[in-house]
Amino acid sequence: MKRVPTDLAIFGGPEAFLHPLHVGRPTIGDRQRFLARLEWALNNNWLTNGGPLVREFEARVADLVGVRHCIATCNATVALELVLRAGDVTGEVIMPSMTFAATAHAASWLGLTPVFCDVDPATGLVDPDHVAALVTPQTGAIVGVHLWGRPAPVEALAKIAADHQVKLFFDAAHALGCTTGGRPVGGSGDAEVFSFHATKAVTAFEGGAVVTDDGLLAERIRAMHNFGIGPDKVVTEIGTNGKMSECAAAMGLTSLDAFAETREHNRVNHALYTSELRDVRGVTVHSLPPDEESNYQYVIILVDGTATGIDRDRLQAILRAEKVVAQPYFSPACHQMTPYRTEPPLRLTQTEWLAERVLALPTGPSVSSEDIRRVCDVIRLATTSGALINAEWDKRKRNGS
Ligand code: T4K
Fold this sequence. Notes:
By secondary structure, the chain is of the alpha/beta class. The chain is built from 14 helices and 14 strands. The strands form 4 sheets. Strands 2-10-9-6-5-3-4 form a 7-stranded mixed beta sheet, sandwiched between helices. Strands 11-12-14 form a 3-stranded antiparallel beta sheet. The longest helix has 19 residues. The structure holds ligand T4K. The site of ligand T4K has 24 residues, from helix 3 and helix 4.
């Protein structure tokens, strides 16, 4: 155990871990089952274009989420593009800036204009009052984000969308298996989008899905994700290639088989981080609503540099040196990124406050309780020795080491 700042790897002490500890280690599930499914797909001589494994994956996701329609896609970014395009959205799309770049890129890629709203700093979720204030005659849609698995305020956003007759979609990339008002995330707005990227609680290598109860929208999206080819094999509109392959579905099904176990492991990890860091001044573990289900996929801490003496970036560097690959999800926020920066700069005070402090810590089935205690020991040492660390840091910088 490290006792003094000079024990830290950043000052030459031994690294806390032999191998890197990551935020987004894939949750593969039973490898033999995956390989058996893959072999089955090869024997079936059907590799993509709505094969049986993709259909099974769609049915399993629709069932889990409790919606009528699920269209599996090659990733969530294309799925977001598909819902905006199939929703005939034009003009501006209101969305939080505190999200992954993909949410904004999906709109921009279609020639739409993302309009960034601020968030509630306590939850990181869109502030519905700010969304309402940003609605103009140019608004074509609102995209809510269930950030870090915490459901966005779906009712408030649904009311704004209905009042102004604009489409409402949700980026649910983080929220498979989470609930809102006791109902599974996935059934709100016109459609919702999940991600099955390698780093998600359920992975399909790369993958995504649109879920919706709107049969007409589902039919258009199904056609659009396959070059605009409709059920009668005729191209009815401009489409793209957004399909999921059988190989991805084999992985998705296998990872889905393990989801209950993954979620339980993540829940235990989240609880342990929360208790280990409870008394650490200046470090707050982002909590999840106790009355809702979660996938506990992200463990997010907020680092208050004035209380700890070291800011988030310095803590991230200290952890990296120990082989703990913490990620600043999401910093910079979208409106601070080169493609979306404006002159004069847009100010979103709560988003910027969060973006300065936020850090995602490693979790997932490959992260053990012992790993977490060790990560928390480093955080505790670093944040309670801020002044000493800064002095040592500056001294070594002056000496060129
Ligand atoms: N909306 C939201 C709110 C999202 O967060 C995302 C994606 C999307 C939409 C779009 O979904 P997709 O189109 O991807 O389906 C990662 C993921 O690439 C991205 O999918 C995810 N969000 C985002 C939050 O995280 P990076 O740039 O941080 O990835 P990378 O390569 O640095 O990996 C992150 C960590 O995971 C590293 O510590 C390494 C580890 N890792 C990664 C991969 C790929 C592994 O251990 N194994 C792996 O195979 O974006």
